[in-house]
Design a protein that fits this description.
The protein has one domain. The protein is 65% helix and 0% strand. It is built from 5 helices and no strands. It is globular, with a radius of gyration of 11 Å. The relative contact order is 0.19.
Length: 62
């Protein structure tokens, strides 16, 4: 559960979520609609020396 919270706190996850949701409210259905990288890739990215950049790379960012 801590990994999910850490992922959702990243700027990249915030940007992705805001692209699919115009509201400030967060619902389970909107989180389910959010495109997510594979769980093992997220875990590895969060363990990287720069987790923010690693998460961005999972979404095709630099």
């Amino acid at each position: 559960m801590a990994a999910v919270a850490a992922f959702l706190r990243t700027q990249t996850a915030d940007r992705v979520f805001r692209c699919i949701n115009a509201s400030v409210a967060v619902s389970a259905s909107e989180l389910e609609a959010m495109p997510m990288p594979a769980a093992d890739a997220v875990q590895a990215a969060l363990a990287a020396s720069d987790p923010e950049a690693a998460i961005a790379r999972l979404y095709g960012g630099e």
